[in-house]
Amino acid sequence: MQEAKHEIERKTLEERHQMSDLERLRHSCAHVLAAAVLRIWPDAKLDIGPPTDEGFYYDFDLEHRFTPDDFERIEAEMKKVAKENQVFERSEMTREKAITHYENSGQKYKVERVNDIPEGETITFHRNGEFLDLCAGPHVPRTGNVKAFKLLRLAAAYYRGNENNPQLQRIYGTAFKNKTQLNEWLEAQEEARKRDHRKIGREQGLFTLSPMVGQGLVLWMPKGGIVRTELQNFMQSELMGRGYSPVFTP
Q1: Do residue 64 and residue 164 come from a single domain?
Q2: What CA–CA distance (Å, rounded) separates 90 from 17?
């Protein structure tokens, strides 16, 4: 399981209201994911589930350790939630009532998130079916609008991005307006993976990486050394041919 580097910063109410239609859809899909996980693992503790540039994620704390083998089961439950066409209903609570609600349901991370909300700001929830989440929105009208989604990968994420806090399990996913757009995006991602220089370099024996040397520092293998030398010679020839003169500094 990879480690997530940070969590998404909390959006202001104004920023939330400016969400694009796609961001609203993905935000709603994060709620569908959380609802599905709670149906399967009722003891799961929830943190946050925002939209991201590529889709969405939700952070969970539970004894069961997620693996990619769980995705099919979770996605099947998500499809049930979507098929039920539940309405996303907005409601408000006082700070005291919200804290009591989450304390009674054992959702300790949500209690802290309620306490994060500035004094004077309305504390809002969104319900779809039996699932109620602390959330300012916005969302699509119904879970039935969430029709094309895919769970992508897992990551470990420290609560609030602090390594001194508990390590949560983060499920990443993506969602689009329809299956055609989803499939096109998935195909583009697969093509990008095939062209990833790390994959090509490893498969062709050009270079290797070692944590003993340092993250991102390349150790050139013989084949890679030849390619690098040829490229350097080509660049030097082009520079000299265009009238550049080499300068060396300490």
Answers
A1: yes
A2: 14
Nearest to 25 by CA among 1, 55, 70, 46: 55
Residue 214 — left, alpha, or beta (φ > 0 → left; ψ -120 to 50 → alpha)? left
Do 33 and 49 touch, CB atoms closer than 8 A?
yes
Question: Residue 211 sits in which domain range?
Answer: 207-241
The answer to whether residue 248 sits within a structural domain is no
Measure the CA–CA gap between 78 and 29, rounded to whole angstroms. Answer: 9
The total domain count for the chain is: 2
- pLDDT by residue (tens digit) across 185-236? 999 999 988 888 888 888 888 888 888 888 778 899 999 899 999 999 999 9
Integer angstrom CA distances of residue 103 from 56, 114, 246: 26, 11, 69
* Residue where the block lists tokens 């049930």: 80
Radius of gyration of the chain (CA): 24
Give pTM, 2 decimals.
0.80
- Judgement on whether residues 23 and 70 belong to the same structural domain of the protein: yes
Indicate the pairing of strand 148-158 with strand 2-3: parallel
Query: Would residue 92 count as lying in a domain?
Result: yes
Specify the residue for token string 């990619």. Answer: 68
Would you say residue 112 lies in a domain? Answer: yes
**Alpha carbons 49 and 118: distance in angstroms, whole number:** 20
